[in-house]
Design a protein that fits this description.
Elements lengths: L13 E15 L4 H9 L5 E15 L12
Antiparallel strand pairs: 1-2
């Protein structure tokens, strides 16, 4: 007959805690100074925002590894 224990399982404390991490990049839509001047005169939007990571939460237990890879590795 297998023995069972009534003791609670000990909680493992995380070695790393990350809370609400975000990373935003500004993407420029012009390649040269001339394009920038023309776009500004025409009141065109010269850049936009790109959220690569938004509100990341994670815990990594001691002895574990984790990797966050994007499209470009």
């Amino acid at each position: 007959m297998p023995s069972t224990s009534n003791s609670p399982v000990e909680a493992v404390k995380p070695a790393i805690v990350i809370t609400d991490v975000s990373k935003t990049f500004t993407l420029k839509h012009t390649n040269s100074f001339k394009e920038s001047v023309v776009a500004a005169l025409q009141r065109k939007q010269l850049s936009s925002q790109f959220n690569a990571v938004d509100g990341l939460n994670l815990e990594v237990p001691e002895g574990q590894s984790i990797a966050l890879l994007g499209r470009n590795g």
